[in-house]
Design brief:
This is 3-dehydroquinate synthase II. By secondary structure, this protein is α+β, with helices and mostly antiparallel strands. The protein is built from eight helices and 22 strands. An eight-stranded mixed barrel has the order 1-2-3-4-5-6-7-8, surrounded by four helices. A six-stranded antiparallel beta barrel has the order 9-16-15-10-11-20. Strands 18-19 form a two-stranded antiparallel ribbon. Helix 3 packs parallel to helix 8.
Length: 414
């Protein structure tokens, strides 16, 4: 059974990191006015979460498979889904599959689902009109599981069902025939239904749904970000830079991992902070030129020039927590660029590896810097005030790539 993180985890927003202090160069901070330094520091500390309030429990999503195709059964079992639904006249098929694989057979008969010991597991309900949807509420508590078949509309009824059964001990699963239908049911009202029953005869549906779960599960992994010291800042002339506008909002400390070399990606801050000259655009990252790599789901990279509406990227915060976001729009325009190079902060190290990024030379573009508990700090430094010796956050990874996939081979990037 696969685990799918809830939207409350996927859409986690990091706290606002305020810049407090007297002896610092220009940095971004929240636009709080008429408050003393002590008041600002108290606000900053109050907004920092403890390590305990980030984790939010979310029950696993159930996947049942309703099929008579052996290759579908094999694909499902290999991916950890071993609950299968059979019609009442297919007990012989269930016995055959049970002899070759560890499966849990369920049998549907007269609107109910039973296990092999004839214990009722679920009630089946068809929804084709609003009246039937209202009657579904009466099933709350009558069975451990309710399996629904949406005959007409899908999105609105699924959302209504999530709302009605929120907090209930009864689990609601929807019958789906395609990966997109399954995804719809699992994401309705962010929380999603308790699971899906795949009624399919094509093993490709199993493969695609597993890929979907893998992408969503990826957000529970915290990426390792390290401190890097800026070693060079240099005006670099004109170039075609890419603004990535996402279908989600970002908060201070969040951005995209971007770099000129795949071996190291720097965390580029979003434009979520307001200034005196321009309104905030919390959906945007001014990410760099068209040649640059950007991190995408699955541990892969792609070129910024390859992004387009509908593609996915990973949004990362200063603690390495990540979530998947959909690209809504990409803007490519010619702008002045600035070259930033950084090196790892490793004492007594002979490592001379450089990590590089080019960014638009503008006050709204910045790199996320590390947060240090107990010290005055900021969320990001604009490239216009970045200087040698500043600390930024870096994701170190393998440099050799083939179509965005990390491979093992000799490579020199410079």
């Amino acid at each position: 059974m696969a685990i799918l993180l809830s939207a409350s985890q996927k859409l986690f927003r990091p706290p606002l990191a305020l810049k407090i202090g007297d002896n610092c160069h220009s940095v971004w901070s929240c636009p709080l006015k008429m408050a003393s330094r002590d008041q600002l520091q108290a606000k900053c500390q109050a907004m920092m979460p403890s390590s305990t309030n980030f984790e939010i429990y979310d029950p696993p999503k159930a996947v049942w498979v309703w099929t008579e195709k052996k290759d579908v059964m094999t694909a499902a079992v290999e991916r950890g889904w071993n609950t299968f639904v059979f019609s009442s006249h297919s007990r012989k098929l269930a016995d055959e599959w049970s002899s070759i694989a560890m499966i849990k057979p369920l049998f549907i008969q007269e609107g109910e689902i039973f296990d092999s010991e004839n214990k009722r597991i679920a009630i089946v309900s068809e929804i084709s009109c609003p009246e039937q949807l209202e009657q579904l509420q009466l099933l709350d508590g009558q069975a451990e599981n309710v399996v629904i078949s949406l005959m007409d509309w899908q999105v609105i009824p699924a959302e209504n069902i999530v709302a009605v059964f929120q907090g209930s001990q009864t689990k609601v699963l929807a019958i789906g025939k395609t990966p997109s239908e399954a995804q719809l049911f699992l994401e309705a009202l962010e929380q999603g239904l308790s699971g899906v029953v795949l009624k399919i005869e094509d093993s490709e549906v199993i493969l695609k749904l597993k890929e979907y779960f893998d992408r969503r599960n990826e957000v529970k992994n915290v990426l390792s970000l390290v401190k890097a010291t800026v070693s060079q800042v240099q005006v670099a002339g004109m170039g075609d830079r890419v603004c990535v506008d996402l279908c989600t909002l970002m908060r201070p400390g969040e951005g995209l991992l971007v770099g000129s070399y795949a071996r190291g990606l720097l965390l580029v801050h979003s434009e979520c902070l307001a200034s005196s000259y321009i309104s905030s655009r919390p959906f945007r990252v001014n990410a760099g030129p068209v040649h640059a790599y950007v991190a995408v789901p699955g541990g892969k990279t792609c070129y910024l020039s390859e992004l387009q509406s509908g593609k996915e990227v990973i949004v990362v915060d200063l603690n390495g927590r990540q979530r998947t976001a959909v690209v809504g729009r990409v803007k490519i325009e010619t702008r002045p660029l600035i070259l930033v190079e950084a090196k790892l902060q490793i004492d007594d190290s002979d490592d001379k590896t450089k990590y590089s990024i080019l960014l638009q030379n503008a006050e709204t573009v910045g790199l996320v810097c590390p947060f240090q508990v107990g010290k005055h700090n900021m969320s990001a430094i604009p490239v216009t005030t970045l200087k040698v010796g500043d600390e930024v956050l870096l994701r170190v990874q393998g440099g050799a790539r083939h179509t965005g996939i990390e491979i093992q081979e000799f490579i020199i990037e410079k």
